[in-house]
Amino acid sequence: MTKQIPEAWSRSSDALLSDLEVDATAGLSDTEVMKRQRECGLNQLTAAPRRAAISVLLYQFRSITVILLLAAGFLAFVFADYAEGTAILAVIVINAMLGFFTELRAVRSMEALSEFTRTECTVLRSGKAVTVTAEEVVPGDIVILDAGDLVPADIRLLTVAKLTANESTLTGESLPVHKDLQILSADTSMLERSNMLFKGSSITRGSGTGLVIGTGSDTEFGKIFEQVSEAKPQQTPLEKRLNRLAAHLASVIGVIAVVIAVAGIFAGRELYLAIEVAIALSVAAIPEGLAIVATIALARGMWRLAKRNALITRLSAVETLGATSVILTDKTGTLTENCMAVSRVLLPETAIDFNVPGNRLPASPSAARRVVDDAAGPQLDALFRATVLCSNASLERPTGTVPNGIGDPTEVALLVAAGDRNIWRDVEAKKMPELREDPFDPDTRRMATLHRADAGFRVFVKGAPESVIPCCTTVHMADGTCRLDEQQRRSWLQRADELGNDGLRTLAVAQKKVAAAKTDLYDELELIGIIGLQDPARTGVGRAIDRCHRAGITVVMVTGDHASTARNIAVATGIVSASAGSDRFRSGPDVDALCDGSQDEALLETRVFSRVTPEQKLRLIHWYQQRGHVVAMTGDGVNDAPALKKADIGVAMGLRGTAVAKEAAAMILQDDEFNTIVTAVAFGRAIFENIRKFVIYLLSCNSSEVLVIGLATMVGGPLPLLPLQILFLNFVTDVFPALALGVGEGSPRLMQQPPRAATERLLMPRHWRRIALHGVVIALVVLAAMALALYLLEYDYKHSVSVAFLTLALAQMWHVFNMRDARNRPFDNEITRNPWIWVALCICLICVFAAIYVPFLSNILALAAPGLHGWALILLMSLLPLIVAPLIWPLTESDAASIALE
Q1: Is-contact 326 554, C-beta < 8 A?
Q2: Is the separation of the CB atoms in 728 and 809 below 8 Å?
Q3: Which helix (H) or strand (E) holds 431?
Q4: From CA 249, how far away is CA 96, in angstroms rounded?
Q5: From CA 604, how far away is CA 583, in angstroms rounded?
Q6: Facing residues of 205 across strands?
Q7: Most confident of 44-58, 488-502, 638-652
Q8: Rounded mean pLDDT of the chain?
Q9: Helix %, strand %, coil % for the chain, to 5?
């Protein structure tokens, strides 16, 4: 016994019942069910193992920076420098703990998928209908289904009665799918398997019975589950850049440390002193605060985005949106309301735009009602009166503006639109009670109801225009009834086709009066009008997409829905213009053909992909990523989960999104507003620029420390700074100003610029020039201060080292003001206006004074108070780099291309 019968849609029900050894009238026995559960397992998805906390903790020590610090600490202990070794280890522990608590996140995608199985269903067991949990369902079970039921497994239908299913979370198609018993070909795609029901979908109308042919991971739902687990999240651009930077620093540090150590030995220094110098160089070169500051800057970005309804589930994803160059967006529920709504009404003498959202009623009369009250109001009321009576849906009158509708979404939308005209089904049903119904037939695509009226009987009909209009012999006019000839019928059908070409679902509505209850319901009807419905675009989406375009971001719709519907929404939201050519629109099969043929130009020009499967979404994401794009993928359904995880950043809808989509995504829009994505992009761009600023700040400070030690060693002078002093500076005077830089506000100009190239490094050549020149100036100033203290002020070695230490500390603090944009004013810019900069400098000053005047710290750091003359020398020398900075900038921004990139 297997958990799935292959190609069940292409085989007869009798053959399937025989293969599964089950009687359609009795179902399985309890004994057989137990046997199959042992063989096939429960009907559930295996939850992904939660990542162990110890694994997350150990991951924090994989950083090259941490490894180098561990080596430095180990050497300090080897040479009995316990204070220094302990301090280095303390920095490592603090950094690891911060990363551990900020990045610890359990993998919950599989758990969310498993939640879908925790439902109940009705099955036939030993000839009786019993209720069981979905986990207990086995292959061969006969499931009894009614409207509102969740489908517990993959099912081959045995009987149907006007059965429709909502498969939007699985396929992306917004309209309910009509089901039948027709045997299909083996190569029929999942989107077209009308004789099947799939796990994760729901019954919207009708009833039926079916044979379970797939359970657990062997369902179509289970295949998506496997794709979610196999689609590995991509390393974000920021992570890649920081890793590359750390690797480069490690190689440079290793070479410099070895060269300086060997040079010291040849210069006659003791082995211990040479190794101590190497340790000092390693500590000086490593930006210990880089990981901490980057983490805190991103965490604050998460907090600020959360206040704007964008919940970030992966820390580094805050920056990733800032680099996004392509957004692949789902349609249903992302760009649209995910509910049908009446959009346009065609009456004999006029056409009315009926702008009533399908999921709520306005608090005041709509524009449509005000326009038609004096003209076509009676005709419009007659049309909606017919739709509410010829219906199986129900709508509770709302106490506020949100009604509670039950039934087919199309019929609910008609009831909502009628409610806007103050026409209610319960009121009309009392006036004209229903006597019988000819239910909707997928073959004829129409339905009719017969009602008792005051002077006889009334028939109301609605359905596809091509099914209803040929049955009409008259048309309902404002001043009476007129004959409808063949030419007029063709004209009405043409008007309906025009609505269909605009992506609307069309329904023709007709009526007639009859004298007897026994009558042909579809003979000699009176046409009232045609209704066009659509899943409307969400409010504000058009403005958000326009902002994306102005920011250089390409927005591409990828949906499982029909081409005409997708095109209509794409035009309505501004993804494409109304005059866009056919090269902007492709279907699912085109994706496979174009990707296989590497037809880059054709795919790059496409803005709408319709009838796309989950596998094809993954192919598109991979295709864009292979060509250097940073891809964001939006979605809300189960079918979107693999793509959300595969994308550089997955964006799920928080209100309408399934649990699976939310858990697979890196960002959740808590308000479901597409505009929130644009806000996140702006934050991401600002955060990246801030990170670039504080990396430049940290590296220029640390390079100055390397040069101070390196130059002093090369000339055979005394060591200007001790390793523990450097560690103190790196952890205090580096971290706080860098952190203040990391939380600054971004420039509004960022959203008028194209996104960064995916291959752009965190630090470009112009940035390295800036780092090197600033480092040289600060290093020369510190060495000059120490030389003056030794030879001019005649300080001893300890006091001279203290002068060098304080000069470096203050020079690095003032250096934060050099991080302003060179085009801004020196005293009024993004740095001086940042209040956190001033807070950081105050903290640094307190720490520096504590290092000198608190005995415990001064003893550990081997520092002494420099005296009045020493302080005067320190202040003068520490301000020189700030004065020299404007002279350095032209050297780092000399080429026009660099200035343009700034």
Answers
A1: yes
A2: no
A3: helix 425-431
A4: 20
A5: 10
A6: 164
A7: 488-502
A8: 81
A9: 50, 15, 30
Flag whether pLDDT at 385 surpasses 90.
yes
| Separation of first and last alpha carbons in the chain | 65
Specify whether domain 369-514 bears CATH 3.90.226.10.
no
Angle at Cα 465 formed by Cα 462 and Cα 467, nearest 5°? Answer: 80
Whole-angstrom distance, CA of residue 679 vs CA of residue 544: 9
Are residues 299 and 102 in contact, defined by beta-carbon separation less than 8 angstroms?
yes
Instruction: Please write the tens of the pLDDT for every residue from 213-238.
Output: 999 888 888 877 666 655 555 555 56
* Phi-psi region at 126: left, alpha or beta (left = phi > 0; alpha = psi -120 to 50): left
Q: Is 233 left (phi over 0), alpha (psi -120 to 50) or beta?
A: beta
- Tell me the pairing of strands 585-587 and 608-610: parallel
* Domain locations along the chain: 8-47+111-230, 58-99+234-309+680-747+757-901, 312-336+538-672, 369-514
* 330 flagged as catalytic: yes
pTM of the predicted model, to two decimals?
A: 0.66
Specify the pLDDT at position 808. 94
Instruction: Count the neighbouring beta carbons within 10 Å of the beta carbon of residue 793.
Output: 16
What would the two tokens of residue 637 be? 């359904």
Exactly one of 141, 149, 154, 330 is catalytic; name it. Answer: 330
819 secondary structure, DSSP code: G
- Kindly state the average pLDDT of the residues 890-901: 46
CB-count burial class (<10 Å; 0-12, 13-18, 19+) for 544: buried
Upper half-sphere CA count for residue 401 (Cβ side, 13 Å): 10
873 to 682, 782, 854: CA distances (angstroms): 44, 11, 22
Q: Could you tell me the two tokens for 728?
A: 């103190």
Tokens of 783: 């060495």
CATH entry, 58-99+234-309+680-747+757-901, from 3.90.850.10, 3.40.50.300, 3.20.20.370, 1.20.1110.10: 1.20.1110.10
What is the rounded radius of gyration, in angstroms, for the C-alpha atoms of the chain? 36
Give the three-state DSSP class for 279: helix
* φ, ψ at 475 (rounded to 5°): -135, 140
Tokens of 433: 């009670």
| Phi, psi of 877, deg, nearest 5 | -70, -35
E strand or H helix at 767, and its extent?
A: helix 765-791
Q: How far apart are CA 182 and CA 185, in angstroms?
A: 10
Which among 733, 696, 744, 686 is positioned nearest to 840, based on CA atoms? Answer: 733
Q: Per CATH, the architecture of 8-47+111-230 is what?
A: Distorted Sandwich (2.70)
At 370 the pLDDT is 39
> For the segment 503-543, what is each residue's pLDDT rounded down to a tens digit?
788 999 999 999 888 888 999 999 999 999 888 788 888 98
For 60, 472, 515, the CA distances from 518, given in Å and listed in that order, are 80, 19, 9
In whole angstroms, give the CA distance from residue 206 to residue 602: 43
Whether 428 and 384 have beta carbons less than 8 Å apart is answered as: no
Determine the 3-state secondary structure of 133 from DSSP. strand
DSSP structure class, residue 183 = -
Q: Does 8-47+111-230 match 312-336+538-672 in CATH topology?
A: no
Ramachandran angles phi, psi of 669, nearest 5°: -85, 105
Counts for the chain of helices (H) and strands (E), in that order: 34, 26
Q: What 8-state DSSP symbol labels residue 323?
A: G
| Single-letter amino acid, residue 83 | A
- 């995608």: which residue's tokens? 109
SS3 463: strand
Question: Which segments within 454-519 are labelled E, that is strand?
Answer: 456-463, 472-477, 480-483, 505-514
The class (CATH top level) of 312-336+538-672 is: alpha beta
**Whether the Cβ atoms of residue 610 and residue 566 lie closer than 8 Å to each other:** yes
pLDDT value at position 81? 67
C-alpha to C-alpha distance for 890 and 471, rounded to whole angstroms? 82
Q: How far is CA 793 from the centre of its chain?
A: 62
